[in-house]
Design goal:
The chain has about 280 residues and is α/β, with parallel strands linked by helices. About 40% of the residues lie in helices and about 15% in strands. The structure holds guanine.
Length: about 280
């Protein structure tokens, strides 16, 4: 049976240390989160971010807009937050409504307040092999989780499924930097299982049930980034957990794997930006 990559346990350990650090700070960081529209998953994520920040002693500010806000109004708000000395970190929750150019909005965030590490400045630094202000939250959380379980990355064949800016592309770059051999797969990849069968480590960030035990080699490490509700309303990941547990060496559960690590990274990034800008 596979060992569990327990993101919840590691998150709690990270928060314990972060709380001690924050308790000693005379001035605390302030995280501003912009939420547009009524996407139910986004609402839950944002509520969770605010609650977590407050528990740790990070100030938080959630700015909510209706679905029909204009791009200009949103850009004006980001500009205002960029120039507000009391705001130390800015996050624009994705997805944004279709009439808003998400790239224009993300690009407008000041790189030294870009807590998601998604601006062209920070992603560009990452892709050039330089140090960005901060690393994107989910990829950072995945690497912290693998390191906690002492999973060797160097020289390993890592197959990343999904090519988003939030997860697939940055995690691939971070793994390359750690000397993995990285293969990127996506919706147009042919013979996916031929490729996944050669993987030492799989990172799946699709949002659909795509990985079964027959697609993997034994003793591989499986990181499941996907999260969605199935037809019965059950929260699931990309991976058939029961089947894959029989052959993998390690597997991250959904929920309780990558999700808690993403929020842990967000809090770490908030503190890192604050300390850098002091
Ligand atoms: N939507 C889903 N995950 C994320 C994330 O990590 N950051 C932002 N900004 N939006 C998201």
């Amino acid at each position: 049976m596979a060992d569990i990559l327990d993101g919840k346990k590691l998150r709690d350990k990270i928060f314990e240390n972060l709380k001690i650090k924050l308790d000693k700070m005379p001035i605390k960081p302030t995280l501003a989160v912009i939420l547009v529209g009524l996407d139910s998953a986004s609402q839950i994520y944002v509520r969770n971010k605010k609650k977590t920040a407050e528990k740790l002693g990070i100030n938080s500010l959630v700015i909510e807009y209706p679905e029909n806000i204009t791009e200009n109004e949103l850009l004006k708000k980001v500009d205002e937050l960029n120039n507000d000395k009391n705001i130390t970190a800015i996050l624009v929750q994705l997805p944004l409504p279709k009439h808003i150019d998400k790239f224009k909005v993300i690009d407008s965030i000041s790189p030294d307040k870009d807590v998601d590490g998604l601006t062209p400045y920070n992603l560009g630094k990452l892709f050039a092999g330089e140090e960005p202000y901060v690393y994107p939250c989910t990829p950072k959380g995945i690497l912290i989780l693998l390191d906690e379980y002492k999973i060797n990355i160097e020289g390993k064949h890592v197959v990343v499924i999904g090519r988003s800016n939030l997860v697939g592309k940055p995690v691939a770059q971070m793994l390359l930097k750690r000397n993995a051999t990285v293969t990127m797969c996506h919706s147009h990849t042919k013979n996916l299982s031929e490729i996944t069968k050669t993987a030492d480590i799989i990172v799946s960030a699709v949002g659909k049930n795509v990985i079964g035990e027959k697609m993997l080699k034994s003793n591989c490490v499986v990181v499941d980034v996907g999260i969605f509700k199935d037809e019965n309303g059950k929260v699931r990941g990309d991976v058939d957990f029961e089947g894959v547990s029989n052959i993998a060496a390690y597997i991250s559960p959904v929920p309780g794997g990558v999700g808690p690590m993403t929020i842990a990274s967000l809090m770490l990034n908030t503190v890192e930006l604050f300390e850098r800008n002091l």
